[in-house]
Specification:
267 residues, alpha/beta, 7-stranded parallel beta sheet, 3-stranded antiparallel beta sheet, 7 helices, 12 strands, 24% strand, globular
Length: 267
C-alpha cells in the first residue's frame, strides 16, 4: 500500500512576513517551515502505517514550492516518512488553489505510476498561511477519488476507512473505501517530534526534485498570470498603541466607558 501525504512550506508566523512587489507572499526572503496543520496529516499517515504492522506500506511526502520548500518534506522524513518529492519550478510562483491542485494531482499520478498506486492521499485541513481548505477537494476531483475531509478521528480496517467530523453541535461519521483523499484536523492527534534517530535516518532517505516538465504540466497553466484571484493592494499593520485607561473617581467611569465603546462602534 502506498500513502502520499501533501505538505506545504509556509512563512514562519513569528517572523517578519511580507509581500513581493506583485503582492504575492514572499516565500524566499523569510524564514519558513512545514505548515503546522500539515504535521497532523503526516502523523495520521504514519499512524495508518503503524497500525497495520506486517503490511508493506510506504509513506511519501509531497510538496511544491521554491527551493527552500524542501525543508517541509525533510521534516516529514524526519518524522518517519519513507521518501519525499519536491516539485520546484520558477513558473509555479503565484499559483492559486486551482493551479496548486493541478500540480499536486500530476505529482500524485507520477508517484502512482512509479510506485504502483496511491491508495491514500492525506492532507491537512488547511495551510496556516492561506487557510483556504479547498485543495483536498480539488485534488480529489482531479484524481477522480472520493474525498473524506476534516476528520478529527480516523479509523481503518482492510480497505475501509471511517472518520468522525465534528460540526457545531453535532458529529458526523463517514465511511469510504480506499483509494480516497483524506484531510485531517488539528484534533486528530498530536503530531510527533522528530527524534535524533529520525533526523539522522532522514538524510539517507530518497528525496526527488521534479519540475513541471517532469509532470507534463505546461508552464502556462500555473503561476500568477493565470490565477483566478490575486491581491491588488496591501496595507502595513499599524503599530500597537497604548491602551486608554478609564478612571471612575467621581462616578463618571461608566459613562466614559460607554462613550469609548460607542466611538469605536463596539456598541
Amino acid at each position: 500500500m502506498n500513502i502520499v501525504v501533501c505538505v506545504k512550506y509556509v512563512p514562519d508566523a513569528t517572523a517578519d512576513r511580507k509581500f513581493e512587489d506583485d503582492f504575492t507572499v514572499d516565500r524566499v526572503g523569510v524564514d519558513g517551515l512545514l505548515s503546522e496543520l500539515d504535521e497532523y496529516a503526516v502523523e495520521q499517515a504514519l499512524q495508518f502505517r503503524e497500525k497495520r504492522e506486517g503490511e508493506d506500506i510506504t509513506v511519501t511526502a509531497l510538496t511544491m514550492g521554491p527551493e527552500k520548500a524542501v525543508d517541509a518534506v525533510r521534516k516529514a522524513l524526519q518524522m518517519g516518512a519513507d521518501s519525499a518529492v519536491h516539485v520546484s519550478d520558477e513558473a509555479i510562483a503565484g499559483s492559486d488553489y486551482v493551479a496548486t491542485s493541478l500540480v499536486l494531482a500530476k505529482a500524485v499520478e507520477k508517484i502512482k505510476a512509479e510506485q504502483g498506486g496511491a491508495d491514500l492521499v492525506v492532507c491537512g485541513m488547511a495551510s496556516t498561511d492561506a487557510a483556504g481548505s479547498v485543495v483536498p477537494a480539488m485534488l480529489a476531483e482531479r484524481l477522480g477519488l472520493p474525498q473524506v475531509t476534516l476528520a478529527s478521528v480516523v479509523e481503518s480496517q482492510g480497505d475501509q476507512v471511517r472518520i468522525k467530523r465534528d460540526n457545531e453541535g453535532s458529529t458526523e461519521v463517514i465511511g469510504a473505501t480506499l483509494p480516497i483523499v483524506l484531510s485531517v484536523t488539528d484534533q486528530s492527534g498530536e503530531a510527533r517530534y522528530p527524534s535524533f534517530k529520525g533526523i539522522m535516518a532522514a538524510k539517507k532517505k530518497p528525496l526527488e526534485t521534479w519540475s513541471l516538465a517532469d509532470l507534463g504540466v505546461d508552464a502556462g497553466q500555473v503561476g500568477l498570470s493565470v490565477a483566478w484571484t490575486h491581491v491588488e493592494d496591501t496595507t502595513q499593520r499599524p503599530p500597537r498603541t497604548a491602551g486608554e485607561i478609564v478612571t471612575d473617581e467621581d462616578g463618571s467611569g461608566a459613562g466614559a466607558l460607554v462613550d469609548f465603546l460607542a466611538s469605536k462602534k463596539f456598541i
